[in-house]
């Protein structure tokens, strides 16, 4: 049986899986990225993980190759460069280093571009030529497809929309030191920052008055919204408003038929989704109103990113 | 001799020319768009103008077709829709109407997309696959090329970057009623608005204290900068700052190799150009610094838009 290794390197977790030609992830595991600050130790862990996954399957498995999705990845150079949400700094030649350990065809790409490719090959974008995949995890990523092709940019760094400034230079500072970067508002981290902002702005009672920033987790905020916590509700409303404006702005760029939203923040369900739909339509230019869909990924939620990464290799077999 | 009619429909002027296969405009004329609020009268004027231009040339001229660049044009529908800078409101089926009068192959496109195509065929982008043309006239337009192809979007309205909001909903209102739209800052009109803003913010002496908004023209502002008028200098600095931030944001989208800047505002020369280069590099993410060029069009300044429009037809003969 032919399978592809899909690896999603995230700020929090590294997810690895074995993916078949329909995009189904047969076996997967994850570990915490931050526990491996030494790249060599990290790559050993990746290699061991792939080995472990193959042992779980029948003996006739053949690995066609390995696709990797990662923030700030350059598909042309095979590197990760200055990723603010990862532990390794500077330029990391990850493709070459991993290929030494696991000699097989290998490709790397911006995690959101990999997600977009996965959506085209396996998911809900099979018939689309113009769409944008948005990943809302530790950071904010975008994979842009226009004229039926992924946009890489001049040297592979297109789609860094988490670093777009929508505040005329007067907003929150991101991990990359850019003022007002969208990622500082719309991401798992951004939502936590917004909880603190709302606590500073309003005097409502809230469970978050007794939780520190470091002890705050995204799931707690969703839970608090379920319980009617006014600070949690205000934080989701604020986040959805900025995301709605951002997606309306992006529409003016390539006029996608749809946005596919994925990642931790989207798992907050209706608390983010309902205000987002409303604010997005509100901000859209008249010429676009009613024409742009906000959709969820067509891939299984837990292994979306793994299937996306595997699509980098499966693409060559279509 | 084979020639193509190129028509640039602008908020202020309509420019018409006859363009050869190298993109050279052999004959041209213009008239004021606003003087023809009735579409039928306008189209008669266009037809007469084309006829007049052909009479200026030797008898063996053969017109291959007609390309039109216009704000808010839909290439797929052959229409201009809700253009805030034009006198005709709603949806204008301009291609069908003009073809009744002048039966020949005809295409229409967003003026900035036409400019981008002109730059690819005839200008300084012949070797480029990823670049953006920005037109700074009465409004703000963008023609985006990625993977060697113009981006049209889902139904032909990509590149409406003049309506991107960079102020989190708290900025100037544009002609389309969008708050904070870039066009309200960075365009011939935006520069005039900034003169008023600077007069309101500062108390410097300035020739503009005795000129009304309606009597204010872009050329006067350039002239005033030459004379050291502090309000004019502040207005250019402010405009360049916002444009620099906008182009840095756009870079995060498709990572172009270059921006080509054209239109009235760029004719202000160093007053806009020098602060723009500086602020653009300042706002660029580190991963892009030093990699993105700000360039002028490679087409003759007075007929850039005409050649761009003609490229819509010449493209088919390559």
General description of the model:
The structure is a homodimer of 318-residue chains. Chain A is an alpha/beta fold and 318 residues long. Chain A has 2 domains: 2-120 and 301-317, Nucleotidyltransferase, domain 5; 127-296, ATPase, nucleotide binding domain (Nucleotidyltransferase, domain 5, 2-Layer Sandwich). The first copy, chain A, has helices spanning 39-55, 94-101, 111-122, 188-201, 218-226, 230-254, 270-283, 304-314; strands at residues 2-9, 13-19, 25-32, 62-70, 73-74, 79-81, 91-92, 106-110, 131-136, 140-146, 149-150, 258-262, 293-296. In chain A, strand 1 (2-9) and strand 2 form a beta hairpin. The first copy, chain A, is globular. Chains A and B meet through helix 6 of A and helix 6 of B.
Descriptive keywords:
318 residues; Nucleotidyltransferase, domain 5; globular; alpha/beta; homodimer
What is shown here, in short?
The structure is a homodimer of 318-residue chains. Chain A has 318 residues and is α/β, with parallel strands linked by helices.
């Amino acid at each position: 049986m032919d399978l592809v290794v899909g690896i999603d390197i995230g700020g929090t977790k590294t997810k690895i899986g074995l993916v078949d030609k329909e995009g189904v992830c047969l076996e997967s595991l994850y570990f915490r990225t931050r526990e491996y600050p030494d790249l060599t130790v990290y790559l050993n862990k990746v290699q061991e993980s792939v080995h472990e996954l193959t042992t779980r399957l029948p003996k006739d498995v053949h690995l066609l190759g390995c696709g990797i999705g990662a923030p700030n990845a350059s598909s042309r150079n095979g590197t990760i460069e200055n990723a603010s949400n990862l532990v390794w700094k500077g330029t990391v030649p990850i493709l070459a280093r991993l290929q030494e350990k696991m000699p097989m065809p290998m490709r790397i790409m911006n995690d959101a571009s990999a997600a977009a490719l996965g959506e085209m090959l396996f998911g809900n974008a099979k018939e689309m030529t113009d769409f944008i995949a948005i990943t809302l995890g530790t950071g904010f990523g975008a994979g842009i497809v226009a004229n039926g092709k992924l946009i890489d940019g001049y040297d592979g760094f297109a789609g860094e929309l988490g670093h777009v400034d929508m505040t005329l230079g007067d907003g929150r500072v991101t991990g990359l030191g850019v003022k007002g970067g969208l990622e500082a508002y719309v991401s798992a981290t951004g939502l936590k920052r917004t909880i603190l902002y709302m606590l500073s702005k309003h005097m409502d009672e809230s469970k978050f008055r007794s939780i520190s920033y470091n002890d705050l987790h995204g799931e707690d905020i969703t839970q608090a919204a379920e319980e009617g916590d006014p600070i949690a509700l205000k934080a989701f409303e604020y986040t959805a408003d900025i995301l709605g404006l951002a997606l309306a702005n992006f529409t003016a760029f390539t006029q996608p038929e749809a946005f596919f939203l994925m990642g931790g923040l989207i798992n907050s369900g209706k608390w983010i989704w309902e205000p987002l739909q409303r604010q997005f339509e509100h901000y859209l230019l008249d010429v676009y109103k009613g024409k742009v869909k906000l959709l969820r990924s067509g891939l299984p939620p837990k292994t979306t990113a793994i299937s996306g990464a595997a699509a980098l290799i499966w693409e060559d077999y279509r």
